[in-house]
Write a structure and sequence with these properties.
This protein is an alpha/beta fold. The protein contains 13 helices and 18 strands. Bound molecules: dihydroflavine-adenine dinucleotide and NADP nicotinamide-adenine-dinucleotide phosphate.
Length: 438
Amino acid sequence: MGTHEPDPYDVVGIGFGPSNLSLAVALEEQQASPSSRIEATFFERQAEFGWHRNMLLPGATMQISFLKDLATFRNPASRFTFITYLHEAGRLAQFVNNQDFFPTRQEFHQYLEWAAARIDYDVSFGSEVTTVRLPESAGSGEPEHLEIEVGTPSGRKLVRTRNVVISTGLVPRMPEGVERGDRVWHSSEFLTRFAALNPADLKNVAVVGAGQSAAEIAGFLHDALPHAQVSAVVPSYGYSIADDTPFANQVFDPAAVDDYHFGTAQAKDAFWRYHKNTNYSVVDDEVIRDLFRRSYEEEVRGAKRLHLLNLTRVASVDRAGDAVKVTLDSLLDAERREVTFDALVFATGYDTMEPTTLLGDLNRYCLRDEAGRLVVERDYRIATTPELPFGIYLQGGTEHSHGLTSSLLSNLAVRSGEIADSIVYRRSQRELGTLTVG
Ligand code: FDA
Ligand code: NAP
C-alpha cells in the first residue's frame, strides 16, 4: 500500500474527460488569491488524455457550437476558451473564414489536449479509481474525510479528500447476449478494432443501429473498404434527423436545467417525450444526405454495395471461424433470417454513468427516490444522510434529475462551474464552522 497524503484534498476528480477537465478549469479560475486555493487532484485510467479516440473518424464534426467549449458559457474571458486555443494555434482567421460553427472532432480533440496540458492541477494518467469509502478508523467517531483507492502503474494508492466528483463517462451498451470479440465490436472501440484487421479480409461488413455513431461508421466503412459490401442494420424505417433547430435547441441551455430539475414529473416527461430526438437514435442532416447520395449513385450505376436493412434488429450473433453469423428479425415481413458477415459493429449506444459500484459501502448513505434512482441536488451533489457529510458530485448519470444535458458537452462549462461554486461555498461554511466537515 502506498503512503497517505498528509492533508485531505478539497476535491478528487475521478476520470479526466471533458467534464472533469472543465471542472479543473473552473476550480483554477475560482482562485482569487493563493490562500483561497482549492486543493484538487484528478485520476484518469487512460494512459494519456483522450476523448472517444476510437470515433475520431475523418471529417466527423462536433454536435455543438465551438462556443460550447470548456469555459466560454461560464467565463468568456477564460484562458481556456476554444477561441484562445485557435489564436495560439495561429488559425483564428482561417477558422472564421471557414464560417462553420461546428469544428471537426479532430480539431476539438486537439483543443481538449491543449487545455489538458495547461491545467495547473496534478492529473495522474494510467490511474483507475476502484473505490470511494470512509476510512476504517471512521467507525470510532465523526469521519474527517473520504478515502479513494487508486490502482496506479506503481501499485495501489490511497488518497484522502473531502469531496469527490465522479465523471467516468457513458458505458457502452451491447444487445443482451452479444459478446464482443475481434470481429464483433462496439462503436466505442471501432478504430482500434478496425486497424487490427487486414482490410482485404473484410468483404462483407455490417453496422447495427440508427444513431450518429452508426451512420458515421457506415460512411467510414464505405470509404475505407471500396471492395466491400456494407450493410446498415437499422431498427427504424431509415435514419432520422437530429433536431437542432433553434427552439428545440433551447433544451440544452443552462436555464433548461432549472426548468427540468425543479419541474413537475409531467414536465420532466415532456422533455424526454418531445426532445429525445435532439440527441438519441438520430443523425445529423448532412451525414444522412451523404449516405443517401452514395446509395442512390450506386443504384444509378447498377453497382449497389451500401445496403439498408431497415425495420430490422439483431436477435443473436454466433462466431463461425473468421465469420460472424447473425440472426436478423425483420418487421417488414416478420421473417427471421441468418446472414454472415466478416465483421459486425454494434453502434447500439450507451448506458448512463452509474456510480454505484465505485461507491460500494457508501451507497447506504445515498438517498434514492421511489424509482430507486439517486437523489441528486441542483448542485449535482448526491443527497446523503447526515452521517456522510462529504460531497459526492456527479457529472453524468443525472438525466433523471438534471435532464438531457447531463452527459453532454452543451452545458459543460456552466455545470462544472456550479460544482466548483458548491465546493468553494461548502469549504467556506466549514471554515466558518457552520458545516461540520464537507
Ligand atoms: P468521457 O467519457 O469523455 O470521460 C470519462 C473519463 O473517465 C474517460 O477518459 C475514462 O477513461 C475515465 N474513467 C472511467 N472510469 C474511471 C475510473 N474508475 N478511474 C479513472 N478514470 C476513469 N456530446 C456533445 O455534447 N457534443 C458532441 O459533439 C459529442 N460528441 C460525441 C461523440 C462520440 C463519439 C460520443 C460517444 C459521445 C459524444 N458526446 C457529445 C457525448 C459525450 O458524453 C460527451 O462528449 C463527453 O464525452 C462527456 O465527457 P465526460 O468527461 O463526462 O465523459
Ligand atoms: P444512440 O443514439 O443511442 O443510438 C443507438 C442506436 O442503436 C439506436 O438507433 C438504437 O435503436 C439502435 N439499437 C440498439 N439495439 C439494437 C439492436 N439490437 N438492433 C438494431 N439496432 C439497435 O447511440 P450513438 O449513435 O452511439 O450516440 C450516442 C451519443 O454520442 C449521442 O449523444 C450522439 O450524439 C453522440 N455522438 C456524437 C458524434 C459526433 O459528435 N460526431 C458521433 C457519434 C456519437 P432504438 O432507438 O430502437 O433503441
